[in-house]
Amino acid sequence: xxxxxxxxxxxxxxxxxxxxxxxxxxxxxxxxxxxxxxxxxxxxxxxxxxxxxxxxxxxxxxxxxxxxxxxxxxxxxxxxxxxxxxxxxx
Length: 90
Description:
The protein is mostly beta strands. It contains one helix and five strands. Helices cover 6% and strands 49% of the residues. A five-stranded mixed β-barrel has the order 1-2-3-5-4.
């Protein structure tokens, strides 16, 4: 293994979701909505996933659409960090 290869980082996962809660200090909760087919009935079913993300500047507010990136574990539940606010809540 050469020195160049060991310095490379893998591509980080990036997700876009809606802020559900910003009540914690420097933390936000994001909901990511998606659809998948039901295993038996093959009908599209809406599913949502909640992620906890680090918001260093306490900038995001509930309803904002944000982009988050995977990072090292920051606490028991936080594994993501805020990259940018795509769209502010109206």
